């Protein structure tokens, strides 16, 4: 099996109704996809995320087998 990483927006507090999830080969790819999703679906600018928010979101990225 190959290792990958995943993020499900619904795991984020306050986003329980969001169906978006992503899986990618690296954590860096996940961060990029999370940023695109935040902009498009939620009107957020990831550049505005403070370190506390980034740390919290980082805990929601899971290692997975594909």
UniProtKB/TrEMBL annotation:
<dbReference type="InterPro" id="IPR009409">
    <property type="entry name" value="DUF1059"/>
</dbReference>
<protein>
    <submittedName>
        <fullName>DUF1059 domain-containing protein</fullName>
    </submittedName>
</protein>
<dbReference type="Pfam" id="PF06348">
    <property type="entry name" value="DUF1059"/>
</dbReference>
């Amino acid at each position: 099996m190959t290792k990958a990483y995943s993020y499900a927006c619904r795991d984020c507090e306050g986003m329980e109704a969001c169906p978006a999830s992503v899986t990618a080969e690296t954590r860096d790819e996940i961060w990029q996809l999370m940023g695109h999703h935040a902009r498009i679906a939620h009107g957020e600018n990831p550049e505005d995320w403070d370190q506390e928010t980034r740390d919290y979101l980082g805990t929601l990225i899971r290692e997975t087998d594909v």
